[in-house]
Amino acid sequence: MIQIADIREWRTHTVLDSGGRKIGTMESVYVDTSTDAPAMATVRIGLPTRHRLTFVPLDGATVGPGYVRVVHDRSLVKHCPAIGTDDVLPAEDEEAVFRHYGLDYRPGADGERQLARR
Asked: Which residues form the PRC-barrel domain (predicted)?
């Protein structure tokens, strides 16, 4: 299991898919607001002049020297809803990210976001 204490060290690590293929570079980590545990990461992908950030769940991820390996295939990650490198995920788009991976989306009782960037 990934420890939250290590969260700052993951930024700029290479993100690999379940088969060991490079997806991109980790940009940010998002925690579940109800547990404060790492839930998703954004991965910088695309051409050097056209980067974007896509989301990937961290459940089952493993960390090694210079890399984070996720349990999802590269093509699934690359087709996830994305944001610009200077953008923030709009609250109304959170559910689409969870549904892309077949995950349940559970906003707070008063409609609070499920994800918060760390």
From this structure: 7-70
